[in-house]
Design a protein that fits this description.
The protein has a domain at 2-171 and 203-229 and 294-309: NAD(P)-binding Rossmann-like Domain (Rossmann fold, 3-Layer(aba) Sandwich), CATH 3.40.50.720. It has eleven helices and twelve strands. It has helices at 11-22, 59-62, 82-102, 139-157, 180-189, 206-219, 235-246, 257-274, 283-289, 298-303, 312-324; strands at 2-6, 26-31, 46-49, 67-70, 108-111, 162-167, 169-171, 195-196, 200-205, 225-228, 231-234, 253-254. α3 runs parallel beside α4 and α7 crosses α11. It is globular, with a radius of gyration of 19 Å. The mean pLDDT is 91.
């Protein structure tokens, strides 16, 4: 099977690429001229240089493929150039769908995010049927992913063989950027996590997410979306798990959201706007943190044979990888 894959140089995409390669797939990987290629090391694959901002140039890569897996996205919670984020996430997805239709690619798997779901502040476990609208999306990243997902769902319901996957919060090795979740791990390892807020996430092993992408090629239903999740955990529970793995102390000071909002506003203003660097916290992150992002993967379990696995192994792999690659001091 010939597969055109975007995002393979990133965290989730690199795991998807290796899962596909293990199944014998022949891979064409989209890479930008500026991409770090660390995550492709040792992977036998053809690379196609291009950019989602110039989608027509990608037609050559899609031609003759059996499937497109669109994992790439502009994933930042702090942006000074939101127009580019919408151009990549929304317009890039729309155009890639169009080219795949024109090239008659038999399968298209779009990697969205659980961020597009309708979460509640009381920690209710949501699923794909929980009501949600664009108005519920906080920040440019969530808005752009929601809009891109709408493009993919509409294409699927119009007859294009498109399946949408919604990973929750992946954790594991090779998070080179790192992602915002990976940054939580890095900050904890560097003892830069003195306090926590009352929030919650669904953590999922990135390897399980990758395996689900492979399964979606044969089992996913066009026009449907599938949450790929793991364990529903409060932030404090996640920090305690990392403490048990590393022996480092877990913070005991819980700060109210109002205090976190004040810090985020200050950091965003001084670090972000005045100094031109990425702030440690943003107002949008704190606003999102008021909702516990707890989700069910029952639909993926039933239709994609998705297995929910404990996250301790993935957390340990993430910690070991960050320590081995200089993001944090080595284990004592």
């Amino acid at each position: 099977m010939n597969i055109f894959l975007t995002g393979a140089t990133g965290f989730v995409g690199s795991h998807v690429a290796r899962a596909l390669a293990q199944q014998g797939a022949s891979l064409r990987l989209l890479v930008r001229a500026s991409s770090r290629l660390d995550n492709l090391e040792g992977l036998a694959a053809e690379t196609v240089q291009g950019d989602l901002l110039q989608p027509e140039a990608l037609r050559r890569g899609l031609a003759g493929c059996d499937a497109v897996m669109h994992v790439a996205a502009d994933y930042r919670l702090w942006v000074t150039d939101p127009e580019r984020m919408y151009a990549v996430n929304v317009e890039g997805t729309r155009e890639l769908l169009r080219i795949a239709r024109e090239e008659r690619v038999p399968r298209f798997v779009y990697t969205s995010s659980v961020a597009t779901m309708g979460f509640l502040s009381n920690g209710t476990i949501i699923d794909e049927q929980t009501p949600v609208s664009l108005a519920d999306m906080i920040g440019h990243y969530k808005r752009s992913k929601f809009m891109a997902e709408e493009e993919a769902i509409a294409a699927g319901r119009a007859g294009q063989p498109v399946i949408v996957l919604n990973p929750t919060t992946p954790i594991g090795s090779h998070d080179i950027k790192p992602t915002p979740t990976g940054q939580i791990v890095v900050d904890f390892l560097n003892r830069k996590f003195p306090a926590y807020v009352d929030t919650g996430l669904n953590l999922v092993d990135v390897d399980a997410v990758a395996r689900a992408h492979v399964q979606a090629l044969s089992a996913g239903r066009a026009g449907e979306r599938y949450i790929l999740g793991g364990e529903n955990l409060t932030l404090k529970q996640i920090l305690d798990k990392m403490s048990a793995i590393t022996g480092l102390p877990s913070p005991t000071l819980r700060v109210p959201h109002s205090a976190a909002m004040l810090f985020a506003w200050f950091d965003q203003t001084v670090t972000g706007r005045l100094r031109g660097r990425t702030p440690r916290a943003t107002v949008e992150e704190v606003r999102m943190g008021k909702k516990k992002m707890f989700a069910s993967s029952a639909k993926a379990a039933a239709e994609l044979d998705f297995k929910v696995v404990p996250v301790e192994g993935a957390l340990r792999r993430a910690i070991d990888w960050f320590q081995a690659h200089g993001y944090a001091p080595p284990a004592a």
